[in-house]
Amino acid sequence: MSKITIALADAQYLIRVGLRSLIEEFEQFEIVGEADSESVLLELVKEKNPKVVILDHQQTAAKFNTDSISKIKASSPSSNILIISGDNNRETIFKVVESGINSFLTKTCDEEEIISAIKATAKEEKFFCNKILNFILEKSFAKPEDCTPTPLTPREIQIVRMIADGKIAKEIANQLNLSTHTIYTHRKNIMNKLELKSASELVLYAVEKGIVKSPTA
Q: Most C-beta atoms within 10 A of its C-beta, which of 70, 106, 112, 206?
């Protein structure tokens, strides 16, 4: 089984050391290089074409910034981008998310979230920690309601609402008086029908279509 190749891009030495130390504990990952500036990173991704680039966009203009994302994509179109940043500015975060990155974590996230995000990003899935997902939901609720009809059945919509509410398959099965296997089948059908790959994408779809209500409503 081929390893997931990773490039680390952060101007802060200690951050790179910490990430490298964590990632090297897992045999399925391989760090192909590190970069402390945009120019070094672009040469690295062009040469190595890593599956995942871990980047902090919020650094001095001479190091990394939001424009670095489009440059990475131009240099290595097959690379997927995971942002790990201390950025708390909503507008900047929205801009980064809309630029086409795959995943976004804050620097307060723990080991489990980082490893899960790397795996999801390598599979071209979306992965957002709770803080970033909340920012995205707030922005989505501010948009005009999308009146495009959903292709989901009433039962599927009911299950999507429960998933968005954080319920696991066993809880949904008990509440609907169905088997856990049936819930998994429904979930698989929903994801296939909507061409989605992760729970985060499903929650965003539910918000955009008005399937889930605003938490402020």
A: 206
| Residue of 30, 35, 45 whose CA lies nearest to 12 | 35
Which tokens is 11 given? 């101007």
Q: Mind listing the pLDDT tens digit for each residue in 22-77?
A: 999 999 999 999 999 999 999 999 999 999 999 998 877 668 888 899 999 999 99
Report the alpha-carbon distance of residue 148 to residue 133 in Å, rounded.
23
Give 39's contacts (C-beta < 8 A, 6+ positions apart). Answer: none
Neighbouring-strand partners of residue 84? 105
Separation CA 123–CA 130 (nearest Å):
20
pTM: 0.67
SS3 126: coil
Provide CB contacts within 8 A for 201, sequence distance 6+: 125, 126
The confidence score (pLDDT) of residue 80 equals: 96
Question: Which are the contacts of 140, defined by CB distance < 8 A and separation ≥ 6?
Answer: 204, 207, 208
Inter-helix orientation angle 180-194/154-164, to 10°: 100
